[in-house]
Design brief:
about 80 residues; 2 helices
């Protein structure tokens, strides 16, 4: 293994609030989905994350925001 080798973690958003009257790209994370993302943000799997990217979908932005807020709170520099 090469030292300092970059890695990529791709996540999908967890549970969402499904509303047939709302376009899919505007669906938001459910309470369970928010809880799972907060738990994921605390996990060792993402301890060395330095960048967070998201699509323009509401649920993806919410998920990325949870990760980014966690890293900022922990004083971890990221882009």
């Amino acid at each position: 293994m090469v030292a300092n080798m970059a890695s990529l973690i791709f996540t999908t958003h967890p549970e969402v609030v499904i509303d047939p009257l709302v376009p899919v790209e505007r669906w938001r994370l459910s309470d369970a989905g928010l809880a799972r993302m907060r738990q994921f943000a605390e996990s060792p799997a993402v301890a060395k994350v330095t960048s967070v990217w998201a699509s323009t979908e509401a649920k993806a932005i919410e998920a990325a925001g949870i990760l980014a807020a966690h890293f900022a709170k922990a004083g971890q520099g990221f882009r």
